[in-house]
Design a protein that fits this description.
The structure holds two protein chains of two kinds. Chain A is an alpha/beta fold. In chain A, about 25% of the residues lie in helices and about 30% in strands. The structure holds flavin-adenine dinucleotide and adenosine monophosphate. Adenosine monophosphate (AMP) binds next to strand 6, helix 3, strand 8 and helix 4 of chain B.
Chain lengths: ~325, ~260
């Protein structure tokens, strides 16, 4: 019999997240894929999951999962795991995913592996491939847990696939205990962004400490506008408060896989690389010829970004006009 | 309000990371160590809260004897005292083993709030704090960019994919703060002198009621099978800007047919 692989599906901006669909594709490849979807979601959400390989969907529409963090979802998922005992359960490396896995592993006294880039099943155990130590190493690990193995998967590790299944939804009772309503989500504030989203953009232009300040990021915005790309950043730029965290690329930020990635004034720390090194082309601008980022670049220019970027923008405008 | 800060002492950022081929673990012996910058931020947050509200800040750390330098640093920053889980049998603990030890050590203290960092600077699994919270039955407030305590209530500004969230709970609670939450202070001479007299409690796994089977290598559910260098990308062309750098990038974009 095929192993059952569960995927914890998430909703963001009123849609099933791409990472949920990526995980479903992988789950369907190694076994029978099933999904869990908790909390309010648009009507077509379950259909989307079925279309991408979920042969069964455990579902509760209760608002408790949206209004209270982690604990209600952990209670429900733990109960489902104990009842059905899937071989593996996949969670996205998102805020909700990581919090949930931490809680579940303590609750069920089982192991968990985070930051998984790929995995396979071998004689009932799971072997996961993980970039270790900020991706300067790569290891394979296994879990010795006898029950369900919990994996936290990096976004963009797999390709989502259309794989239509008959829609089979099982309603599950909502977590009701007042004890679980401890972490109250009082308010969600969406910081407006312009242009294409980082995750979806074909061209990403990222700036780092070399940009020297908040105002200077506008030159990257100008370049993004000419190329139809999105602007990202290194953690140094985020921690300095120049740009919001939503723009951070890397180990602890977003993972992107654009056609072209510009690293501007970014040194190429392993933690940054792990979020962008699978880009098709990497173009680097850095004044330090020894910056590690050059090791990963397809095309690099050693020099002052404040001279090179404006010239590039001018040149692109000129050629476009021509 | 009494605060526990869970923080790690890790190989210094100046150290090139080496892996022991036998144990498949990070080589920690004999390399200079420092208080994890993420832990320093957690300490800073604890100090700021207690400077306002009164109470103590106790650092809880698990690590080898190399951790002492980082513990001293936290004490010099102003932490009241420290708890050090120091025992050969805990080497090789996985996340849950680590969380069990830390939770047991925290339980022996008097506390209202536990502050962790979202990720440790060397293993960054990002789940130990969530496991501790569950083991202690504390509400987990994660990815905090700002912490406010008001009486028995705690509110955080929580980082999110699309902006931020306001999340609230009641004490006792556990908060995991994100990087960049603050700029940790540097220890001053006075603090460094005072640190010498501060208490460092040492616990073994047995002191915490955990057997060698539950922790360390033996208790670990996660087993590393192989470790090596990932495939390297072929470095491409690099030119030095001699006034034409921007144009050369445009040429490259034309070459790969983007423009
Ligand atoms: C647990 C952990 C998680 C982390 N997660 C992330 C993450 O998700 N993402 C991330 O990015 N980092 C992450 N980091 C931080 C990472 O280690 C680096 O500190 C960070 O990426 C450095 O950012 P940077 O390259 O912008 O800054 P720097 O390393 O300071 O590099 C700045 C570069 O700009 C160049 N420069 C300066 N001026 C100019 C100029 N005028 N023209 C051209 N070039 C110029 C310099 O030569 C230099 O190479 C993490 C670290 C840890 C410990
Ligand atoms: N050995 C340790 N000693 C003290 N705190 C730790 C230790 N390991 C993990 N933590 C805490 O758990 C958080 C998350 O760690 P990690 O899951 O390793 O990324 C850290 O930022 C610390 O607050």
């Amino acid at each position: 019999m095929a192993e059952t692989i569960w995927v914890y599906a998430e909703i963001s901006e009123d849609k099933i997240t791409t990472t949920s669909l990526e995980m479903l594709a992988k789950a369907a490849e190694v076994g029978a894929a099933e999904a869990i979807l908790l909390g309010p979601a648009p009507d077509d959400a379950v259909q989307t999951l079925a279309n991408h390989g979920a042969s069964k969907i455990y579902r509760s529409t209760d608002a408790v999962y949206k209004d209270y963090l982690t604990l209600p979802a952990a209670e429900t998922v733990a109960a489902l795991i104990q009842k059905h005992n899937p071989s593996v359960m996949l969670f996205a490396s998102s805020y909700a995913g990581r919090d949930l896995v931490a809680n579940l592993s303590a609750r069920l006294d089982c192991g968990a592996i985070t930051d998984v880039g790929d995995f396979e099943l071998k004689d009932g155990s799971v072997v996961a491939t993980i970039p270790a130590l900020g991706a300067s190493y790569q290891n394979t690990s296994t879990l010795l847990t006898s029950g369900t193995k919990l994996l936290v998967v990096r976004p963009k590790s797999f390709e989502p696939k259309e794989n239509p299944q008959a829609l089979a939804v099982e309603e599950v009772p909502a977590a009701a205990s007042a004890d679980l309503r401890k972490v109250h989500m009082k308010e969600r504030v969406v910081v407006k962004r312009e242009g294409p989203s980082l995750e979806g953009a074909k061209i990403v232009i990222s700036g780092g400490r070399g940009l020297k300040g908040e105002e200077q990021f506008s030159i990257l915005k100008d370049l993004a506008d000419v190329l139809g790309g999105a602007v990202g950043a290194s953690r140094a730029a985020v921690d300095a408060g120049w740009v919001p965290y939503a723009m951070q690329i890397g180990q602890t930020g977003k993972t992107v896989k654009p056609d072209i990635y510009f690293a501007v004034g970014i040194s190429g720390a392993v933690q940054h690389l792990s979020g962008m090194k699978t880009a098709k082309y990497i173009i680097t601008i850095n004044k330090d010829p020894d910056a590690p980022i050059f090791q990963y670049s397809d095309f690099g220019v050693v020099g002052d970004l404040f001279k090179i970027v404006p010239q590039l923008i001018e040149e692109l405008k000129k050629r476009k006009g021509a | 309000m009494n605060v526990i800060v869970c923080g790690k002492v890790i190989p210094a950022s100046t150290v090139t990371i080496e892996i022991d081929a036998n144990t498949k673990r990070l080589v920690r012996k004999g390399v200079p160590h420092e208080l994890d910058p993420a832990a320093a931020s957690a300490v800073e947050e604890g100090l700021r809260l207690t400077e306002k509200l009164g109470g103590t800040v106790v650092l809880v750390t698990m690590g080898t004897s190399d951790a002492t330098i980082g513990i001293r640093n936290a004490l010099a920053m102003g932490v009241t005292s420290a708890v050090h889980i120091l025992d050969d049998v805990v080497a090789g603990s996985d996340t849950l083993g680590t969380a069990k030890l830390l939770a047991a050590a925290i339980k022996k203290q008097d506390y209202d709030l536990v502050i962790c960092a979202t990720e440790s600077g060397d293993s960054y699994s990002g789940i130990v704090h969530g496991q501790i919270a569950q083991l202690l039955g504390l509400p987990p407030l994660t990815f905090a960019k700002e912490i406010t305590v008001d009486g028995g209530n705690i509110t955080i500004k929580r980082q999110s994919e699309s902006g931020f969230e306001i999340v609230e709970s009641t004490l006792p609670a556990l908060v995991a703060c994100s990087s960049g939450i603050n700029e940790p202070r540097y220890p001053q001479l006075k603090g460094i002198m005072a640190a010498k007299k501060k208490e460092i409690k040492v616990y073994s796994a047995a002191d915490l009621g955990l057997s060698p089977e539950q922790v360390g290598e033996k208790g670990a559910r996660e087993k590393v099978l192989t470790i090596g260098r990932p495939p390297k990308r072929q470095a491409g062309k690099a030119v030095t800007d001699e006034g034409e750098g921007g144009k050369q990038i445009a040429d490259f974009l034309a070459e790969i047919k983007v423009i």
